[in-house]
C-alpha cells in the first residue's frame, strides 16, 4: 500500500541563498585573527604581571630579600679578608623568584692596584645556592694574615732596611686575645682612630679590621675570620641576624655555619687587627709600626705592603 499524501502538503518555500562573498569572508577572518592576537597579548601581560607579583612575594616575603642582602654584605667581607667592598651589593628578584647578590671588591692594602673583583651569589626559591667569584690570586695582605707571624726583632730589622716616610698595611697579633673593653683601652693607648661605618658603606675606606679568631681555628674552611671594620657591636648584630637557613649561603663562601658566628659573637675576642695607612716610623700624631712593636700586648707585627707617603707636610 503506498502512503497517502497529507491534505496540507505543499511545495517548500525555499528563499534564494546569497551567493558566496569572498571579500566579506576575508574581512571576517582578519577581524577574528586580530581579536585573537589582542586577547593573547592581554592574557600574556596579565600572566606576566601576576607571575612578577608572585615572584616578588616569594623573594621578598617576610623580608627574605633584605635579609639575604644583609647576610651577604657581611659574609662576602669575611670570605675575602684582603679585599673591601667598593660598592654596594644588591639583590635582584627575577621572574623565577631567584635572588642574586653582586658586589665589587678592591684590595684593602696600600700600594696595590685597585683591580675590581666581582662576587655573585645566587639563591633560588628552593634555596639552592651557587657562586660566581672572579678574583686574582691572594694578595700580600692575605699571605700576611695566614703565614707564620715574624718575631718583633725580624720586623724591626725589616724596618731598618726600609726608607723613611712610608705608609704600610700591617697585621698585628696580640699575645692574648682581648675582650672589647681591653681592645678599646689598647686602641686609646696607641692613639688609634676607630671610626666604623655600617657595612657595607665606606668599608673600602676603613683603616682598621678586627681579627676575630686565631689562624686555623675558625670552624670553617677559611683560615682566619676578619671583620671589615673596628666595630665588634656591628659584628654581633650581624651574627645575631643569622638563621640556620643561611648556612648554605655561608657554606658557598667557605665560611663556618651560623651557630659558629653566634658563638663567637656571644663572647667576642680580638686576636689581632689589620691596620691600613699606618706610618712605619715615629708618628707624633698617632699610632705607628714602631710604637706597636714596643707594646707588650702585641705578639708580633707582619708587614703586608708599604708605599711612600706623599702627603704634603
Account of the protein in words:
With 313 residues, this protein is of the alpha+beta class. It has a domain at 140-308. The protein is built from nine helices and nine strands. It has helices at 22-60, 64-79, 140-146, 152-160, 180-189, 232-241, 247-252, 258-266, 289-294; strands at residues 83-91, 99-107, 117-123, 129-134, 166-178, 208-211, 226-227, 270-279, 298-308. It has a five-stranded antiparallel β-sheet. Strand 3 (117-123) and strand 4 (129-134) form a beta hairpin. The mean pLDDT is 77.
Q: Secondary structure elements and their pairing?
A:
Layout: H1 22-60, H2 64-79, E1 83-91, E2 99-107, E3 117-123, E4 129-134, H3 140-146, H4 152-160, E5 166-178, H5 180-189, E6 208-211, E7 226-227, H6 232-241, H7 247-252, H8 258-266, E8 270-279, H9 289-294, E9 298-308
Antiparallel strand pairs: 1-2, 2-3, 3-4, 5-8, 5-9, 6-7, 6-8
Helix pairs in contact: 6-8
Amino acid at each position: 500500500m503506498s502512503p497517502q499524501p497529507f491534505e496540507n502538503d505543499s511545495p517548500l518555500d525555499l528563499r534564494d541563498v546569497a551567493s558566496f562573498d569572498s571579500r566579506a569572508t576575508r574581512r571576517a577572518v582578519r577581524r577574528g585573527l586580530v581579536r585573537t592576537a589582542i586577547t593573547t597579548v592581554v592574557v600574556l601581560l596579565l600572566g606576566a604581571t601576576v607571575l612578577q607579583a608572585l615572584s616578588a612575594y616569594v623573594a621578598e616575603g617576610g623580608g627574605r630579600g633584605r635579609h639575604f642582602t644583609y647576610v651577604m654584605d657581611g659574609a662576602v667581607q669575611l670570605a675575602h679578608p684582603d679585599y673591601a667592598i667598593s660598592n654596594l651589593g644588591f639583590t635582584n628578584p627575577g621572574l623565577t623568584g631567584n635572588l642574586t647578590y653582586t658586589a665589587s671588591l678592591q684590595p684593602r692594602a696600600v700600594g696595590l692596584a685597585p683591580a675590581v673583583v666581582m662576587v655573585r651569589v645566587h639563591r633560588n626559591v628552593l634555596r639552592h645556592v651557587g657562586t660566581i667569584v672572579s678574583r686574582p690570586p691572594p694578595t700580600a695582605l692575605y699571605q700576611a694574615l695566614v703565614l707564620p707571624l715574624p718575631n718583633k726583632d725580624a720586623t724591626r730589622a725589616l724596618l731598618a732596611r726600609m726608607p723613611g716616610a712610608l705608609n704600610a698595611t700591617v697585621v698585628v697579633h696580640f699575645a692574648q686575645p682581648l675582650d672589647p673593653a681591653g681592645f678599646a683601652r689598647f686602641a686609646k693607648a696607641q692613639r688609634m682612630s676607630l671610626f666604623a661605618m655600617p657595612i657595607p658603606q665606606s668599608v673600602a675606606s676603613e683603616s682598621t679590621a678586627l681579627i676575630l679568631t686565631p689562624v686555623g681555628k675558625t670552624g670553617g674552611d677559611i683560615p682566619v675570620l676578619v671583620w671589615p671594620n673596628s666595630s665588634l657591636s656591628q659584628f654581633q648584630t650581624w651574627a645575631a641576624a643569622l638563621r640556620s637557613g643561611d648556612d648554605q649561603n655561608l657554606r658557598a663562601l667557605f665560611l663556618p655555619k651560623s651557630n659558629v658566628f653566634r658563638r663567637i659573637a656571644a663572647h667576642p675576642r680580638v686576636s689581632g687587627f689589620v691596620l691600613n695607612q699606618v706610618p712605619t716610623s715615629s708618628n707624633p700624631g698617632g699610632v705607628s709600626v714602631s710604637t706597636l712593636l714596643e707594646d707588650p700586648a702585641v705578639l708580633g707585627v707582619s708587614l703586608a705592603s708599604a708605599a711612600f707617603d706623599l702627603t704634603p707636610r
